Amino acid sequence: MALSLSRTVIALSQAGLARRLQGSDPDTVGLRFVGLHYGADLADEVRGLLEWYRWGGEVSARQWSDVLGILRVGGEAVDRVYLSSGALELGVLDLLDRAIQQAEPD
């Protein structure tokens, strides 16, 4: 289980980095990488939070609140297609759907 989980985390991290560097000149990738904000973009952050929320038994009010906050504040900046595909891979698409519904303005 731990090895499988580690491979999933590594693959998703690589996918996030590849998204950020898309269209980059291979000679400048190292320089661009240094200049990137360390940490995940908004979609990657939501995916990670949803996964941890699921692993923790879906009881952390803080994690759920963080997910809703990112979706509300991030708005259109959150890549929903990328987010949905990642949530599907991680088995948390149901949580993402619920979060999107709850994050919508009344």
Overall morphology: globular
Strand composition percent = under 5%
Average pLDDT over all residues: 75
Distance between the termini: 41 Å
**Helix-strand makeup class:** mainly alpha
Q: Total strand count, please?
A: 0
Number of helices, counting only DSSP H or I runs of 4 residues or more = 6
What count of structural domains?
1
Q: Measured on Cα atoms, how large is the radius of gyration?
A: 15 Å
* Main sheet specs: none
Tell me the helix content.
over 70%
- The poorly predicted ranges are 1-6, 26-39
What are the secondary-structure elements, in order, as H or E? HHHHHH
Written account of the structure:
The protein is mainly alpha-helical and 106 residues long. The protein has one domain (2-103). Helices cover 72% and strands 0% of the residues. The protein has 6 helices and no strands. It is globular, with a radius of gyration of 15 Å. The N and C termini lie far apart (41 Å).
Task: Characterize this entry briefly.
The protein has 106 residues and is mainly α.
Please outline the helices and strands.
Blueprint: H1 2-20, H2 29-35, H3 42-55, H4 61-74, H5 80-90, H6 93-103
Helix pairs in contact: 3-4, 3-5, 4-6, 5-6
Features:
mainly alpha, globular, 72% helix
